[in-house]
User: Which sequence fits this backbone?
């Protein structure tokens, strides 16, 4: 606890000094957001399906997803295998909030979407959750080298204060892991709406067994261990989901 508090205080004092040198008010300078330089954002959606309806929901979505993708861009659609039963997770890309509002309005007026999908899918769901996220400035969407395989969504709940406090340490932990060839990093996303100070790293592996082997190897990499040790001083909790891409997912 002493180490965590001292590390947090050192980071805070460093940021404050930088802000004051630039003639800014320190508290205003400390970012609690991703400092997004463009309007593009990604909506994360998680649906929890009634267990007895899981197969029927996936079949219906496979048949009717084209009605939805006619309105906006789908980045990926997955069925969760580990870390959440009877769930699907999907990511939608928007250029602006105005575009998303327009898409939602168009969907509400699309009779085929309502009649052929929504009216049938909604009774199959237990709940729906969504988050608005941005790619962090040092990340981009990097597609896997080939189709197939599995994806891991690793979600990290960081300490309050935003990337100005923990961003550098988090970047080092993720980048060192990716640079060591331990896994393929698809993208890193920072939350804007939903749970704040949350960062999601989307990884790709050839198979669940390859992921297990990669994790074992990373645990023996001194560079990864050192970077993670620094990053976790800002970490409150983390979760992970292993997911299989659906046939209609652009990210396969």
Assistant:
């Amino acid at each position: 606890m002493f180490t965590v508090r001292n590390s947090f205080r050192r980071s805070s004092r460093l940021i404050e000094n930088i802000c004051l040198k630039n003639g800014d008010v320190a508290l205003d300078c400390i970012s609690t957001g991703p400092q997004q330089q463009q309007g593009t954002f990604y909506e994360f959606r998680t649906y929890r399906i009634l267990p007895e309806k899981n197969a029927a929901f996936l079949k219906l979505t496979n048949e009717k997803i084209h009605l939805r993708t006619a309105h906006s861009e789908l980045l990926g659609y997955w069925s969760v295998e580990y870390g959440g039963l009877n769930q699907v997770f999907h990511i939608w890309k928007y250029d602006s909030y105005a575009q998303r509002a327009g898409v939602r309005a168009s969907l509400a007026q699309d009779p085929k979407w309502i009649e052929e999908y929504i009216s049938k899918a909604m009774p199959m769901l237990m709940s729906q959750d969504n988050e608005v996220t941005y790619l962090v400035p040092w990340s981009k969407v990097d597609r896997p080298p080939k189709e197939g395989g599995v994806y891991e969504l690793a979600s990290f709940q960081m300490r309050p204060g935003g990337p100005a406090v923990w961003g550098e340490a988090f970047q080092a932990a993720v980048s060192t892991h990716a640079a060591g060839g331990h896994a393929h990093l698809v993208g890193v996303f920072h939350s804007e709406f939903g749970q704040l100070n949350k960062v999601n790293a989307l990884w790709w592996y050839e198979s669940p067994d390859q992921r297990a082997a990669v994790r074992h190897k990373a645990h023996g990499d001194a560079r990864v261990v050192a970077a993670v040790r620094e990053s976790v001083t800002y970490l409150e909790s983390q979760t992970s989901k292993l997911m299989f891409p659906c046939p209609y997912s652009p990210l396969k």
In short: Confidence is low (pLDDT under 50) at residues 1-35.
